[in-house]
Amino acid sequence: MQKIKIIRKLPDKNGYFGQYGGRFIPETLMPALQELEEAYSKTKKDISFQNELKHLQETYIGRPTPLYFAKRLTRHLGGAKIYLKREDLAHTGAHKINNALGQALLAKKMGKKRLIAETGAGQHGVATATGAALVGLECEIYMGSEDVQRQSLNVFRMKLLGANVNEVNIGSKTLKDAINEALRDWTTNVRNTHYVMGTVFGPHPFPMLVRDFQSVIGREAKKQILKIEGKLPDYLIACVGGGSNAMGLFYEFLYDNVKMIGVEAGGKGIESGEHAARFAGGSIGVFQGCKSYLLQDDNGNVLGTHSVSAGLDYASIGPEHPYLRDIKRVQYTYATDKEALSAFELLSKTEGIIPALESAHAIAEAVKLAQSLPKHKIIIVNLSGRGDKDVQQVARIKGIEL
């Protein structure tokens, strides 16, 4: 239990979770990160800021999101009871809005005129564009050209919300390249621009800041399950790309006797090399501002990744996750593209809920686990986003022309 108490005090003053985290950035960005850390520290104690955020969470985002008992899916699997934390019902259709809105308010308070962000599946780009529109800031989004093609609907949504979308045509043309371009923009325009990091990754204080804005998910889920079942769940399950929805759910339960499982993208299988399962095939390295687990070769070159889900197709993972894995507080596994697509269809047919392909990875793990558990056990799955954005891609995979 002593270890768990230490967890809640992390990161340390230098931004580390054990050996992971820190700040590995160009010198020109150091003042901006120090300014951000100081501003965030003040807003945590600023009652007017917290009241404004809470008011918008309730009246704009639509919080609290429901905790839904998936009765038909549970019956179909014949094991543990499965509850879904419905982040797909939050405004803009994913948990990303919790963090993007918080950072937009913070940037406004810091006197910034412009927001920039990277995005993979597009949900963080949509959420940032939404936050910028709400508080009246300019918005610029960076997105890999492969993801632009996979998520064209979200690109159009960002433009409707007033954002300028920059297509990144270098490297693997996915999320890691979009982050590189966003960091270059920030280095050039740091005086008037805030970079809205979309997940619990990057240089300190971003992993802490994003985790804190997302932890509303776990606080709500704990209250809701205690009210419904009169006890805590036995398991929490969440998908892990950068890892913000998982940290958002897990953080409130770190002190409790609850097992937690993070699900990475197994792609076409670990043996194929075409995946994004950092714990199954990665090693410790420094990437895009922090030290964490990373898919890299023996010379430290970042490897290409693959996932059917654009939001999980990333070479590294937020630094708090490997720390929680090292101390055996959270278990990490993976689901393949095939398993995620099967879960995508199963939840759609049994519950009338089309999940995001990211969330379908968590559902795939719940399918495996629930069948092995007795009926009195309880699983909460974080349904991090809705699947509207993925319908066209799934149709293409199935050979159906819409």
Can you tell me about this structure?
The protein has helices at 2-7, 30-45, 47-61, 71-77, 96-109, 123-135, 145-150, 152-160, 175-188, 206-214, 216-229, 244-250, 278-281, 320-326, 337-351, 357-370, 391-397, and strands at 16-17, 20-21, 67-69, 81-86, 114-119, 138-144, 164-168, 193-195, 235-239, 259-267, 283-287, 290-294, 331-336, 378-383. It is α/β, with parallel strands linked by helices and 402 residues long. The protein has a six-stranded mixed beta sheet, with helices on both faces. It is globular and about 55 Å long. The model has no long low-confidence stretch (mean pLDDT 95).
List descriptors.
402 residues; six-stranded mixed sheet; alpha/beta; single chain; Rossmann fold; globular; 14 strands; four-stranded parallel sheet; TrpB-like_PALP; tryptophan biosynthesis; Trp_synth_b_CS
